[in-house]
């Protein structure tokens, strides 16, 4: 912006200098034609010329044609105003259409011819030479103005082409990303769906096998249900990967959990029910049946009163914390505490377990190492806080505080 203003200032200075220079030359030629002008006429001519230059600088960009017409009339009254009149024609050539430029050029040429024709103190040769000199000067100004206008239009067209090229490149990148997402989705489906379905089939066969012990049937049932849920999660992930970017932006604009938000698959149909805070006891029981030592301290008088958006994220936080405990501290006793100060306060979640002695054991389950990062993203999205780490008692403690709007 400053650079643009500086360039405009330089242009204004150049236009003013040209107007003053041409006006002084014209006035000097007038004095040679009329050798003894009175001081009054000289002062009046200079004042009119100064006002013409001021009007040129103030309004030449806003009303170039009107200013040029006005200064053409002023040219009949003052010789020093001819400089402003010439630079006004130059401005019209730069900023206006060629029809206006041609009309004003013809008007100025007519004015110059009429004025020099009425000068009795000049012979025929001097009159013709003066007209030719002024016409050549006007031709130089008009041609220069048209060249400046053409150059600006060329630069603007090149900028527009560059913008279109950048937009086209952005669209090509978006298309490539979308195609890559679809390829990943197909690959995930081909690689994982078959194996998980086989796992569910074999677990189901073991669960309903008549000769299998009861504890094995229960464990097989847990495996079968977990495999089914894994298939549902895989379907959601594949649906998200196949969602087009425009649909993602529209869904994110409505907000997660907002009314009318699209399903992960993008069509809004067949959306899998999302967990709520009231599902935490079932999650704890499932972990206990899988062999984990989990204690649930529920200090909420009415878990159903918690908003579904907050409850869903709270459920996912506890689910991820229990998964991390099984991976990094197998067999440890885990304590889950959920409490709240009610609407207008916060929902607090604490998951703690003692750390195993010695060096950390190798993880028994594969993982991407991004679970805590994902939890922090969830908490940040709600405007809450998340703390985790070893406490002085040798426990690993995860604490999350989620705002509960009043």
Automatic annotation (TrEMBL):
**Keywords recorded for this protein, A-Z:** ATP-binding, Kinase, Membrane, Nucleotide-binding, Phosphoprotein, Transferase, Transmembrane, Transmembrane helix, Two-component regulatory system
Q: Bias category Gly residues: which stretches?
A: 254-267
Q: Name one GO molecular function term.
A: kinase activity
The reactions it catalyses are:
ATP + protein L-histidine = ADP + protein N-phospho-L-histidine
- Record-listed E.C. numbers: 2.7.13.3
What are the boundaries of the region Disordered?
246-275
Q: Where is the Histidine kinase/HSP90-like ATPase domain?
A: 313-403
Mind telling me which Gene3D superfamilies this protein's record contains?
A: 1.20.5.1930, Histidine kinase-like ATPase, C-terminal domain
In the UniProt record, does the keyword Acyltransferase occur?
Answer: no
Q: Where is the Signal transduction histidine kinase subgroup 3 dimerisation and phosphoacceptor domain?
A: 180-244
Per its UniProt entry, what is the enzyme's top EC class, as one word? Answer: transferase
What positions does the domain DUF7134 occupy? 2-152
* InterPro entries per record: DUF7134, HATPase_C_sf, HATPase_dom, Sensor_HK_TwoCompSys, Sig_transdc_His_kin_sub3_dim/P
Entry's transmembrane regions: 12-30, 42-59, 71-94, 100-119, 131-148
Q: What is this protein called?
A: histidine kinase
Please name the taxonomic classification of the source. Answer: Bacteria, Bacillati, Actinomycetota, Actinomycetes, Streptosporangiales
């Amino acid at each position: 912006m400053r650079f643009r203003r500086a360039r405009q200032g330089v242009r204004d200075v150049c236009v003013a200098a040209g107007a003053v220079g041409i006006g002084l030359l014209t006035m000097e030629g007038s004095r040679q034609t009329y050798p003894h002008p009175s001081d009054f006429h000289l002062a009046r001519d200079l004042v009119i010329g100064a006002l013409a230059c001021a009007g040129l600088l103030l309004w030449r960009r806003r009303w170039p044609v009107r200013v040029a017409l006005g200064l053409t009339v002023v040219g009949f009254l003052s010789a020093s105003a001819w400089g402003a009149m010439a630079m006004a024609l130059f401005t019209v050539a730069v900023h206006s259409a060629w029809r206006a430029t041609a009309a004003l050029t013809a008007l100025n040429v007519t004015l110059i011819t009429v004025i020099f024709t009425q000068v009795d103190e000049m012979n025929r040769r001097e009159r013709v030479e003066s007209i030719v000199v002024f016409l050549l000067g006007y031709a130089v100004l008009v041609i220069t103005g048209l060249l400046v206008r053409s150059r600006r239009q060329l630069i603007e067209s090149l900028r527009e082409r560059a913008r279109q090229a950048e937009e086209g490149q952005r669209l090509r990148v978006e298309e490539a990303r979308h195609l890559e997402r679809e390829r990943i989705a197909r690959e995930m489906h081909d690689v994982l769906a078959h194996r998980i379905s086989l796992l569910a089939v074999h677990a189901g066969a073991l669960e309903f096998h008549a000769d299998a012990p009861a504890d094995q049937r229960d464990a097989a049932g847990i495996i079968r249900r977990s495999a089914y849920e894994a298939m549902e999660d895989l379907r959601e992930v594949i649906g998200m990967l196949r969602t087009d970017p425009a649909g993602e932006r529209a869904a994110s604009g409505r907000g997660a959990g907002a009314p009318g938000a699209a399903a992960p698959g993008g069509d809004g149909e067949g959306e899998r029910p999302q967990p709520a805070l009231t599902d935490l006891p079932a999650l704890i029981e499932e972990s206990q049946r899988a062999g984990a030592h989990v204690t649930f301290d529920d200090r909420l008088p009415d878990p159903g009163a918690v908003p579904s958006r907050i409850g869903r994220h709270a459920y996912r936080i506890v689910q991820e914390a229990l998964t991390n405990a099984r991976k990094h501290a197998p067999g440890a006793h885990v304590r889950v505490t959920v409490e709240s100060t009610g609407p207008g306060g916060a929902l607090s979640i604490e998951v703690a377990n003692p750390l195993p002695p010695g060096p950390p054991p190798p993880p028994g389950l594969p993982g991407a190492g991004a679970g805590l990062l994902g939890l922090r993203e969830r908490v940040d999205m709600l405007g809450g806080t998340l703390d985790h780490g070893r406490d002085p008692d040798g426990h690993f403690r995860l604490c999350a505080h989620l705002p509960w709007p009043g």
